[in-house]
Amino acid sequence: MPPPQLQSATANAADSINLNSTAIIMTDVEKELRISRPIIEVIRLTRTIETPTHRVEILRGIDLSIPKGQFAAIMGPSGSGKSTLLGLLAGLDNATDGQILLDGEDITGLSEDRMAEVRGRKIGFVFQSFQLIPTLTAEENVLLPAELAGAGPEATRRARELLTRVGLEDRLDHYPIQLSGGEQQRVALARAFITKPPILYADEPTGNLDGRTGQQVLDLLLELNRVEGATLVLVTHDPALAAHADRVITLRDGLVVSDVLNRAEVSCGN
């Protein structure tokens, strides 16, 4: 039998090897989450719909953690649950079971009034179909979230600054019907950033645009987000768009089937 000193040294070496093996098999995503504070946490999230004849399971126990400042793209075929997940993350729908925490705050089960207050403080949203109010001008559409949040006169200055940054400084008083699809989506981008939200969700933001206009809108979205520093979660069918993301999460049949970092390092906030 080896002396006690040798036994102890052997045990320590084995522990070291086990620890190193754990580090080696740890995924890039797991490493990223260990060093970054998550701003979005999803725990065993499910969404089902009951019909007279059967139950439809849209999401089947999703677990996700997204660190502050990350750009995450969510991909998957039609019917995989992408847009449902994004709607739940924004509090636009109610989960059947599970939890969603935004910056440590549990939003599951909140009343609509309370959820609206959380959205006003923490969330910007870019829709595929623009969702502009037709009776408001471009400037008024951008200002609306700030006014609902009780912002002061400085909001007007910020709205005009954002519209200038998306190239619409000469369209402030135009109504949506007077704007092209690309211009309407640029108004929607400015609106999403007006309250300086820490989280930005985008659901197929270029889906209703032609290729050239879609690329322009994507470039503006990424540039605005780089300057503003929000955590960006984007749903897309387009692999070329997802290639710009720090991380690509793929859903299929209501489950996460792939979760991969595109970059070795992600710029995250403090």
Walkthrough of the structure:
This protein is of the alpha/beta class. The chain has two domains: 1-27; 69-91 and 107-261, Rossmann fold (3-Layer(aba) Sandwich). It is 40% helix and 24% strand. The protein contains nine helices and ten strands. The chain has helices at residues 4-25, 28-35, 82-89, 112-122, 138-148, 154-165, 181-193, 211-228, 239-242, and strands at 38-50, 55-67, 71-75, 97-102, 105-106, 123-126, 199-203, 231-235, 247-252, 255-261. The strands form two sheets. It has a six-stranded mixed sheet with strand order 6-7-8-3-9-10. Strands 2-1-4-5 form a four-stranded antiparallel sheet, with helices on one face. β1 and β2 form a beta hairpin. The protein is globular and about 50 Å long.
The count of β-strands is: 10
How many domain regions? 2
Radius of gyration: 22 Å
CATH architecture of the largest domain: 3-Layer(aba) Sandwich
The chain-level mean pLDDT equals 85
Largest sheet, spatial ordering of strands: 6-7-8-3-9-10
CATH superfamily of the largest domain: P-loop containing nucleotide triphosphate hydrolases
Choose one word for the global shape. globular
User: What would you call the structural class?
Assistant: alpha/beta
Task: Estimate what percentage of residues fall within beta strands.
Answer: 15-25%
Low-confidence stretches: 13-26, 265-270
Count of helix runs: 9
Order of helices and strands: HHEEEHEEHEHHHEHEHEE
